[in-house]
Amino acid sequence: MPRLLIVYHTLTGGTRQMAEAAAVGASTESGVIIRLISASQAQPDDVLSADGYIFATPENLAAMAGLMKDFFDRTYYPVLEHIAGRPYGTLICAGSDGENAARQIARIVKGWRLRQVADPIIVCTHAQTPEAILAPKLIAENDLERCRILGMSIAAGLAIGIF
To answer: Dihedrals φ, ψ of 112, to 5°?
Structure first.
């Protein structure tokens, strides 16, 4: 059975909501095993055993979160040359635009030769003050639906073998 790995980091809960929504969407596709795991816990074997990926991170200081970068640092070389061609999608919970975090992930996984199968989903919370940035986030239902559709789409592609 194909496996979808969803790796995420969250500080204020927004990215977790997005990753969980993607997992819910993916779970509608029978015959696909979904693994949702925090970036700090994910290991090279998790990446190697998956057939597709969703990477979810908050934007921190115009970049992906440090613990997400740590995930890529720890797993990059052990899986290099072993996962080329596998599909991936990206979820970003941003305070401003999220574009740089999405670019950083795209540059890293380009080295893995992963195949981007959807444009990054960037949810902008417009949090611009220290209080708003550190406050718990509540992601709007329409944005969570976009995340569910991404999860469902990647899982469906894995299930029918187009990825």
So the answer is: -75, -10
Tokens of 49: 């055993």
**Is 3.10.129.10 the CATH number for 3-160?**
no
Mean pLDDT of 47-58: 98
Task: Provide the pLDDT for residue 10.
Answer: 97
- H/E run at residue 7: strand 3-8
Q: Give the global pTM.
A: 0.97
Burial-class residue 34 by CB neighbours within 10 Å (0-12, 13-18, 19+).
Answer: buried
Q: Distance (Å, rounded) from C-alpha 10 to C-alpha 18? A: 10
Under the banding of pLDDT at 50, 70 and 90, the label for residue 98 is very high
Which one, of 99, 80, 15, 81, lies nearest residue 54 by Cα?
15
What are the phi and psi torsion angles at 53 (to 5°)? Answer: -140, 150
108: which 2 tokens?
């890293």
Average pLDDT score over the chain: 97
> What pLDDT score was predicted for residue 4?
98
In 3-state terms, what secondary structure has residue 64? strand
Please state the φ and ψ torsions of residue 64, each to the nearest 5 degrees. -65, 155
Distance CA 117, CA 15 (A): 20
